[in-house]
Amino acid sequence: MKFQVDRHAATPVAQQLEEGLRQWIRHNGGGRRLPSIRRLAATHNISRNAVIDAYERLVSAGLIRSKPGSGFYVTDRVAVQANKQPTFNPLQEVTNGLWGLFSAEEHTLKLGCGWLPNDWRESDDLTYAIRQVARNSRSGIFEYSTPQGLLTLRRLIQERLRPLAITTDAQQIVTTNSGSHSLDLLVRLLLEPGDVVFVESPGYYNLFGLLHLQRIHVVGVPRLADGPDIERLEALLAQHRPKLFYINSVYHNPTGSTLTPAIAHRVLQLAERYDFKIIEDDIYADFQHTPTTRLAALDGLKRVIYLASFSKTLSSSLRVGFIASPPDLVQRLVDIKMLTSISASLFSEQVLVTLLQNGSYRKLIERLRTRLSNQMAIALTLLKKAGWEVFTEPAGGMFLWAKPPTDDETLKATAQRYEIMLSPSHLFLPDNATTPWLRLNVAYMQDPRAKAFIEANRSYANTSK
Amino acid sequence: MKFQVDRHAATPVAQQLEEGLRQWIRHNGGGRRLPSIRRLAATHNISRNAVIDAYERLVSAGLIRSKPGSGFYVTDRVAVQANKQPTFNPLQEVTNGLWGLFSAEEHTLKLGCGWLPNDWRESDDLTYAIRQVARNSRSGIFEYSTPQGLLTLRRLIQERLRPLAITTDAQQIVTTNSGSHSLDLLVRLLLEPGDVVFVESPGYYNLFGLLHLQRIHVVGVPRLADGPDIERLEALLAQHRPKLFYINSVYHNPTGSTLTPAIAHRVLQLAERYDFKIIEDDIYADFQHTPTTRLAALDGLKRVIYLASFSKTLSSSLRVGFIASPPDLVQRLVDIKMLTSISASLFSEQVLVTLLQNGSYRKLIERLRTRLSNQMAIALTLLKKAGWEVFTEPAGGMFLWAKPPTDDETLKATAQRYEIMLSPSHLFLPDNATTPWLRLNVAYMQDPRAKAFIEANRSYANTSK
């Protein structure tokens, strides 16, 4: 293998190695065996860890794979996910879609993904808090948290819900590992196989997969720019008896829309009349400048179970989320949490407490809000200029739901040309139907490739504008 | 409230406050309202955080509770869990039992608990690794891990399984949050409501609760000193068709016994004949000096699914465990992991990688093994002298299963006298039957109260010895 690794260059050795290996792979193609970790380290006079790191990145990128007892091989690379329409398997579909985004090659622009770009994340305050906890808290680095979660954290969360007009008590709050974990606990608490659950369409695909896993009958309610389609909801309630309606109130995934007070009120009236519970997923809450009406605020946490997390703003690595629950569900929720994972990470809980107490978290989300609002405005202008249709014009948050004026073929070709990774749109629909709409994450629109991609998909009817 | 807080004393303010409050509670009894956090902070000229900390500890200890919008109140303290025999509810029972140990008052001696005492934990290496990752890895503090878990970590785990003669590949390993999380993923992957699962009796109570939660029919197979009772297993196989048999091979919880090669071989023969899978729970593996035969080693990870974690040795706060799985189950296991919690903590995975790579973890477990073996020998001598019966004499690990020569009443009275918290024995039996056997954690036997308690429960037949 002929490539140089310079141990004194600014680029880390593992990254140089990865780039060299990518070239080698490009020239040599699928099926070839790579040198062993030991050998590659020896021939290039670098550490085995650097080689492991580089190989790991290539495995993540799907370029190589390891075979038991035999070493690493270049994969026969998968063709671009074009017109593939396999037998319908929602679980498989969702996880394949997710896998794509989680293990995308690093140079691709993840314009369709559901989290902030790494270079938007701010490390100073978080690093400080981590070191504080590591230095000062023996229990923090060693012990289980309490089953319900650290009380100090729950009280701080209680405080944070006050500006949203959600009145709750720390005793009603249960910490979890994430929004997904919260959903999983709630699904197991509230549902039995065969139960009916209403979801929004389009909506959060991981939830659909989770409900299929638990053999729940999923019914989609159209999501409009102001919340769920109430007329359609009423019609569906004449046919089904849902136990639960899952709603993503603010900066809805994938449409970016926000529930209005009037729709919130109507949904709650229907929930009362047809006796179903509501899960209000508010994981984008902290991206919002001025709080709007929450279902949990109107309802006072009686029928509404509220959840949010810190993964989208602070860190996806710490794994901290929470549920604010009606009082009568708390004990069983904690039971299920304990039986399935004992407790959350006390360390992560204490790190979060530090950041909430010293004001860093508040300042962080203020900066993020401003930055996202600005990006949103820029993105909307860009899309309109190119003749894309937008579902609604959000004031902030990450997501835009937009329809390109070009056909599927042009879209895919340009995405490939500009190395853009889109999220598979059909996954946002509970029945996996095809849709011309795309979820765009405006935080990735700073990259010039995004602009080029959108302009390459412009409407020729609009060229004169 | 009359007590002094000295801000310059060696004892932290929150702890002084807690002690003062405990005295006050003792004198004033249940139902009384405590001062608000703000007021107590003001009258004692201390920070509100210190008051929150103190209140939190008292809530954890069950001495006070908060009421929504009203403040903190002294609880009407729960009497010692004596002859209470409520309606049978396995889930409730397990979680109540667990709650007790997780939120026990700090001064009690948790002789029955399932983890190492805080003062056995070693912080230097762990703190170092945490700071390394916080300083050097942007992705580590921010990003999701890969769905299957960090490849470097999986390769290190693969290496660690080699001395146990478990041949596997990093592609067969999936990281999880803990042993409990591993079990939960496997239960959801492999079982449907109504399925039959064989468990060991006595065995791991959290598992029983988890299986009940998933509506699995649980059948207990007696655990003997050399592993499951093969004769009884064969008889039960004539009546039931289990999908799965859960076995805790080494330093079994709660008996401390270890599976012999002969029994392992017989179990696998039966698994073949009656076509069931085996979950080999090996979370106490690292407490063992010289590896004994693992089911996964004999079977080559075909029918056996192997799991372990780092919670018992390194830290219960980091939340890292893993599954080594037959190749055909990996993809679906990862799917379920993603749908229910997206990924494990990349930060924790990287901290563990650091400790596994720099040798600290190896040295840590060597010290723990020696310490536990010594404690085990001391405990066995002590128990035999006092005329207790022991189920088996483990060479190491934390657990001893022992039968006191005294009656239940004496046992409870002496436990109360020496402030000893025992784990509720009936929970270890899948049918929650009463049993005179107790699980003792030898790591807590260094406390003089343990010796006093055991000697207070001595056999008078043995006094002459």
What does this structure look like?
- 2 copies of one chain form a homodimer.
- The first copy, chain A, has 465 residues and is an alpha/beta fold.
- The first copy, chain A, has 3 domains: 13-74, Arc Repressor Mutant, subunit A (Orthogonal Bundle); 90-121 and 363-462, Aspartate Aminotransferase, domain 1, CATH 3.90.1150.10; 138-357, Type I PLP-dependent aspartate aminotransferase-like (Major domain) (Aspartate Aminotransferase, domain 2, 3-Layer(aba) Sandwich).
- Chain A is built from 17 helices and 13 strands.
- In chain A, helix 12 links the parallel strand 8 (277-281) and strand 9.
- The longest helix of chain A is centred in the C-terminal third of the chain and has 26 residues, at 360-385.
- The radius of gyration of chain A is 24 Å and the shape is globular.
- Chains A and B meet through helix 3, strand 1, helix 4, helix 5 and helix 6 of A and helix 3, strand 1, helix 4, helix 5 and helix 6 of B.
- Chains A, B: Keywords: Aminotransferase, DNA-binding, Pyridoxal phosphate, Transcription, Transcription regulation, Transferase.
- Chains A, B: This is PLP-dependent aminotransferase family protein.
- Chains A, B: Residues 7-77 form the HTH gntR-type domain.
- Chains A, B: Pfam families: Aminotran_1_2, GntR.
